[in-house]
Amino acid sequence: DAEITQSPRHKITETGRQVTLACHQTWNHNNMFWYRQDLGHGLRLIHYSYGVQDTNKGEVSDGYSVSRSNTEDLPLTLESAASSQTSVYFCASSDSTGTGGTEAFFGQGTRLTVV
Amino acid sequence: AQKVTQAQTEISVVEKEDVTLDCVYETRDTTYYLFWYKQPPSGELVFLIRRNSFDEQNEISGRYSWNFQKSTSSFNFTITASQVVDSAVYFCALVTGANSKLTFGKGITLSVRP
Lengths: 115, 114
What we know:
The complex is a heterodimer.
Chain A: E1 4-7, E2 10-13, E3 19-25, E4 31-38, E5 42-51, E6 54-57, E7 64-66, E8 76-78, E9 87-94, E10 104-106, E11 110-114
Parallel strand pairs in A: 2-11
Antiparallel strand pairs in A: 1-3, 3-8, 4-5, 4-9, 5-6, 7-8, 9-10, 9-11
Chain B: E1 3-5, E2 10-14, E3 19-21, E4 24-26, E5 32-39, E6 46-52, E7 59-61, E8 64-69, E9 74-79, E10 88-96, E11 103-104, E12 108-113
Parallel strand pairs in B: 2-12
Antiparallel strand pairs in B: 1-4, 3-9, 5-6, 5-10, 7-8, 8-9, 10-11, 10-12
């Protein structure tokens, strides 16, 4: 079965360190997204990609970067981790065919704590 | 710009009660898609329904039903005869045009007590 997986599931890191969260999907979807979930804010979009070599900033992109070198992966990098980046991170993918608005499939989430 | 408002933050009901979760959206696009996702205590996000802006027909799936009203920009979700397993955070979300980015509301925490 196709799936989308995130790793690690939990991570504790120190302020100032670079951290990379992995996201891998086997749906062969062109669209991939990173969201963060915080109490009182719901899910907010960090970065997204509509295909290989395409990346775009979302609503809360400061301090984060992504790269898309293949269809399956969209790693999220925190350049210099800050306590404000303690959150639960979700990766998602969706099909780009048709007129848009297709269902997004989400990974299990990564709980990141910055100390 | 688009926006999704879920004014209710927490709802607590007793099992077998009916409960309605409200969702109001804002967009200037004429083509858009509305979604509901469920996040149980285990943390994953589970897709429940997708509705496009041209289809105002209400939908029923078992104990779940959705009422889409363009006149009030609302897409409300009703659970009939709630069960403890319905306890979760429920998110309403919006996608506009050919854009595939989901804009989420802040979520509603539903607690169903036995």
